[in-house]
Task: inverse folding
């Protein structure tokens, strides 16, 4: 018995609907990028952000592969990092602050008594931290000295330690 050749008819040329991937629907579209930026700005870690949106850290990492989500996180972190750098720099150099003293007056109004300008002295620890990170070659605690096949390491205690090449 011979098989009939397969004929294309309008009935068998219809495209089939794509199969569903299955699983739970993604929450990605419902996540507000402004909220992500604000959370990152406030110092939230990736774990905190995942917890806030009620997703796993693995899911958050998948979201981070999408440009707009990653941009939102980086924007918030960059803004807060810049503010910390500015504050550290200000603290390292010292700064002036204006202090105003008020006295309670009649009917709940405050009366300005005096205004003074105070100087906050530079913070040595902030200076050291800044220099170690900006110029590590010059300000690092550990220095390596190479001479004729011998490496010497000067550690924090400023002792010379002999290290084999």
Result:
């Amino acid at each position: 018995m011979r098989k009939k050749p397969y004929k294309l008819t309008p009935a068998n040329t219809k495209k089939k609907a794509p199969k569903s991937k299955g699983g739970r629907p993604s929450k990605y579209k419902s996540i507000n990028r402004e909220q992500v930026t604000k959370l990152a700005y406030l110092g939230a870690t990736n774990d905190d952000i995942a917890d806030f949106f009620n997703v796993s850290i693995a899911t958050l990492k998948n979201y981070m592969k999408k440009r707009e989500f990653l941009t939102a996180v980086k924007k918030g972190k960059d803004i807060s990092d810049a503010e910390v750098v500015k504050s550290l720099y200000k603290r390292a150099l010292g700064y002036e602050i204006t202090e105003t003293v008020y006295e309670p007056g009649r009917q709940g109004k405050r009366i300005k008594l005096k205004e003074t300008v105070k100087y906050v002295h530079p913070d040595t620890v902030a200076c050291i931290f800044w220099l170690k990170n900006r110029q590590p070659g010059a300000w690092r605690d550990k220095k390596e000295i190479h001479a004729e096949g011998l490496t010497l390491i000067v550690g924090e205690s400023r002792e010379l330690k002999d290290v084999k090449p």
